[in-house]
Write a structure and sequence with these properties.
about 475 residues; alpha/beta; Rossmann fold; 6-stranded parallel sheet; about 15% strand; globular; transferase activity
Length: about 475
């Protein structure tokens, strides 16, 4: 069936990489779909990419929605703690704010509602309350009017975790338009980041499908479609690969050196991340004394705007090459920094032309495994750790790390004094996480990492055809 009108909904910018910069649009159009981007972000899709877009200009959600969303998250984590007899879910919570009378009163209000609703039925009550709040907003009515004018056959939401998506999706459902959402990240389900309830859900893998059924009793098996994620598709696009000479020339890298990628983390995940970069620089210097010719490519976390790495980079500028992600700031807030299509090629080539990656618990392990490159995870405390600073070891206790088929799916550095010998062993071919890392990659991202866009379009076609027939 052709001439289906599909509305691709961006409630925020996180879906751009997966659904605007990959071949996703082209694949859908080849199937005869008319694709319109429903754009709630500041990123100018039509201006930058020439895509047909409808802008959502009304941005205000209900003022109480963020509070009820936080209540929902806490309740879901409390229910999971009890259901699975596992305290790890409590570590996903952010601390309450008691600074000042206003914040204290709001915190007491939130905690009271959490206490009164910490059950499966309570979750549904709070979700119903959030929906009621969002249906009362100008944004809901604005989006409903847009939908009545566009008359799409389906609304595909590119992430499940944005509060900005609740009102627009409710408007679609109230008009009888089928809705489908994509679960954005590998760790999102156990972290209680499922803000929206849609008719269908695209999930990465059988593992994520199982998680959705475990955590969300209101989601039925026939609503879950295993598709994989377009996130890793660019790693298999050979047209993105530059020659080593061209890549090194573009970024002023030394062709006599082999490079190790240090992939930076956000400040919440790894508050002392700069010291791991410093440890890597020391290890590289020691190996270079032994006759190795090594350098470091430092790729920061795209939304990290701190200057915490500057001193380390300056002190080691002879071994550290800074290659910033090609993201674009369109506003002053962190959520107004957007990826670009060019960054897909940059990341592809950083992976291809590095010997390995090191970081704290990042999914870049899968980016590099896709290129048959090892990953070292830092898993030791820094001496600068003190009360009030989060220990990075907590990250590896999270539920999504339990998906590892074995401890060898990543190379864990548990002592900074091991780092030099581990890197040397990797370079000599005596240490690798690639065999087990590939198994982990398949568990998390599914068996067909190159076909995720195709499978999502299969899901869209099936949903629309079943409804029309």
């Amino acid at each position: 069936m052709t001439n289906k009108k599909i509305l691709i909904f961006f409630p925020d910018g996180v879906g751009l990489r997966n659904f605007a910069f990959t071949q996703f649009k082209e694949i859908g159009e080849q199937r005869g779909n008319k694709i319109i981007y429903w754009n709630n972000t500041a990123f100018p899709l039509q201006e930058e990419l020439g895509y047909d877009e409808v802008k959502i200009k009304t941005q205000k959600i209900h003022p109480l929605t963020p509070f009820y969303c936080r209540i929902r998250k806490h309740i879901e984590l409390n229910v999971a703690t009890k259901k699975f007899a596992d305290s790890v879910y409590q570590t996903y919570k952010f601390p309450f704010n008691y600074s000042g009378i206003k914040n204290t009163l709001m915190t007491l209000f939130i905690r009271l509602l959490i206490a009164l609703n910490s059950s499966e039925k309570g979750i549904l009550r709070i979700r119903k309350r959030i929906n009621s709040l969002e249906r009362s907003t100008e944004k809901y009515n604005y989006c409903k009017a847009q939908l009545q004018e566009i008359k799409p056959d389906l609304v595909f939401c590119t992430t499940q975790r944005a509060s900005q998506s609740i009102g627009p999706l409710l408007a679609a459902q109230d008009l009888g338009i089928p809705t489908l959402t994509f679960v954005y990240s590998w760790d999102n389900v156990p972290k209680a980041m499922q803000l929206v309830a849609t008719d269908y859900y695209c999930v990465w893998s059988d593992l994520m499908k199982k998680e959705m059924q475990q955590y969300y009793s209101f989601v039925k098996e026939n609503q879950l479609i295993v598709t994989g994620t377009p996130q890793f598709e660019p790693h298999y696009d050979k047209s993105l690969l530059q020659t080593r000479a061209a890549f090194f020339a573009q970024y002023n890298l030394d062709t006599a050196k082999k490079y190790i990628c240090f992939s930076g983390d956000d400040e919440t995940t790894s508050p002392l991340d700069q010291y791991y970069l410093e440890d890597l620089a020391h290890a590289v210097r020691a190996l270079n004394i032994k006759g190795y010719h090594l350098g470091i490519i430092y790729r920061k976390c795209p939304v990290d705007t701190t200057n915490r790495y500057d001193a380390v980079i300056e002190a080691n500028k002879d071994v550290i090459a800074v290659i910033d992600p090609l993201w674009k700031a369109i506003g002053k807030n962190w959520n107004e920094v957007f990826p670009t299509k060019a960054d897909l090629q940059l990341l592809h080539n950083v992976c291809a032309h590095s010997e390995l990656v090191t970081n704290v618990c990042s999914s870049t392990v899968f980016d590099f495994v896709a290129h048959d490159k090892p990953c070292v995870y830092y898993n030791y405390e820094q001496p600068q750790l003190k009360k009030g600073i989060r220990d990075i070891g907590q990250n590896y206790k999270y539920v999504h790390f339990r998906s590892m088929p074995s401890p060898e799916a990543a190379i864990f550095c548990t002592d900074k004094n091991q780092l030099e010998s581990q890197i040397e062993a990797i370079l000599k071919g005596n240490l690798s996480n690639i065999p087990e890392g590939k198994k982990w990659y398949e568990i998390v991202a599914g068996k067909s990492p190159t076909q995720a866009s195709e499978k999502i379009w299969d899901a869209i076609d099936t949903i629309v055809n079943e409804i029309k027939n």
